[in-house]
Structures are given as structure tokens and as C-alpha cells.
Predict the 3D structure of the following.
Amino acid sequence: MGRLSISIDNRKIGGGSPPYLIAELSANHNGSLERALRLIEIAKKSGADAVKIQTYTADTMTIDCAREEFVIRGGLWNGYTLYDLYKTAQTPPEWHKIMFDRARKIGITLFSTPFDESGVDLLENLNAPAYKIASFEINDLDLVRYAASTRKPLIISTGMADEEEIRESVNAAIEAGGRAPILLHCVSAYPTPLREANLRRIERLARRFKTVIGLSDHTKGISAAIASVALGAGVIEKHFTDSRENGGVDSGFSATAGEFKRLSTAVKEVFCALGEGKSAPSKMERGNLIFRRSLYFIRDLKEGETIRRDHIGKIRPGYGLPPKTLNLVVGRRAARDIVRGTAVSFDLIV
């Protein structure tokens, strides 16, 4: 990842900045605009840098059809037709301006995932500051190009995609928009078991694509998201709700307000603890260098007396010569009278 950085709403992402924390609202509004607006406010209070929504309608996603291939079998959404799921989960287009206005009023970034070109058009009219391409749309290169052509920062989730598909999407974004997108490691399973989280892929993506890498996290809890920081994640996206008891199609793998607040704190603490990786004593350590072992005279000596091994101790504090110089001292003569407890220095020996 290096020092590369990308900015959204004047907030630098990557380049040594703390991870950018996105609260994914998704379908947790449960069909209520009032609840959606309240969740935006709760997300800000919980430490999110941004709130993300999704821009689609059931009709832009699929067709109203009950044939078996349009019915979901297994998982959280078992038995739903695709159309009914998206009808339930959609954030209505007429809500968007109200939500953008509320976010700007309270001072938190709001952006969205458009699922087709009409979604990009809607969001452009609202001056969205960035775009996210969902993992299921990473192979829609026309959509990638269309979103990138706005010249806004682009985030792409990589779930289900192999490296060739990721590279095609990255190249499409660069060709259309002139800049590399942020890539989020993602496992497109809802929820994702921790044993399937595969967080080390973050490092692999960073090596392969030389851009800001992050995590779109669908695991339960916040452990995976916290761990991702140590692997170099510059962005963390986590589904968000006020309480799982309120239900919703995404609530089962969403962080509650309390969990999100703990995540925000932990992410900052882990990032702070990582440091810069310098191989040198830290500022805090320098004051303790005096407590390392060093060479001291542990017997009195007369001027001209030959220094024996039993004259010298490797003891604390650390004001004398380092222990590795012992053989350079033993066998030489004292330059003057030396009192027991004197730190060994080259000006005391001949």
C-alpha cells in the first residue's frame, strides 16, 4: 500500500492515515425513512467517518418472477424471490436527497453503491462524493467505467472475483477515470464465518495492485475488522444497525451502535500501536537506555595498575562502555587512580 492516498470529502485515506470507517446502512432502515435518518445520526455518534447506502430498485435489479432460479434457497434470505428481497431492501430514490441533506447537516459523509448507470445519474445530481461498486457488480465493466468517468473516488469490493477479474475492473476504472480505485477484500457470504474471512488476502491485494486496500466485513462481531488494521486495511466497511432486535434483512451480520463504537475505538488504538516499524529505540525507550548493562570498575585501582577481569563488572546502570568492549579493557593499565563504582571509559585506560 505504501504512501498512496485517496481523499473523500477532504478526508485522506491511506498514506499513513487512520483507517476510514464506513457504516453500511444497506437495508437496515426496514422501509422507514425516519429510521434511516436516525441511523445516519447514530452512525456519526458511533465514530463512523461515512455512511453508505445502496441505490437501486427491484426493477433495476431483476424481474418479478417466481421461477425456481429466481428463488433464494438457504441462508438469511431463504424463500425470498430476488424481486421481493430487493423490493424489501431498496432505499427508495425519493429518500436519497433527504438523506444526503441530513448527513451534510450533521457533518458526516454519505455516499452510495449504484447498481446500474441510472443510479450513478441519480447520485451525480446529488453531488455524491464517491462511489462504491458492489462485489456482485465487479464484472459489470460498463458500470465501473460509468462510475469512474465521474472522476469521483471509486471503491470496489472484490468478493467472488479472481485476480484477473479484479485487474480488469481496476483497468476499466483507470481508463475511464484516470485513478486507481480503492479495493476492499470481501467474502460475499452473509454472514461470513470467521474461519472463512481470509484476511491475509488484504496483504496479497496490496502487493498485487499498489493501491489503498481495505475490508468489507460480513462476519458477526468486530474481531475480523479490528484484525484487518494490522494487515494494512486503510478502509473498513461494516454493516450497521441500532439493534439487531429491530430485525431487517441485514441485521443478522450488522454491528450494533455499541459494537460500532467499540470498533471505532479499537481501530484507532490498533492503528496507533502499529507505529512506523523503525528499528531503533523509541522516544519512550531512550530514557531507559541508562538501565542497560555496561562496564564498571568494581574494585579500586591505582594509576598504572593492570586491569584484570575481576576489576570489571557488567552491571547496571548504562553509563559505562558497552559489554562488548570488555576484551579491549582487560589487560590494559589504569590511566589514574580509579575508585570502585566508576563507569569504564577509554580515557581511564592506557
In short: Residues 16-57+92-274 form a domain with the TIM Barrel fold (CATH 3.20.20.70).
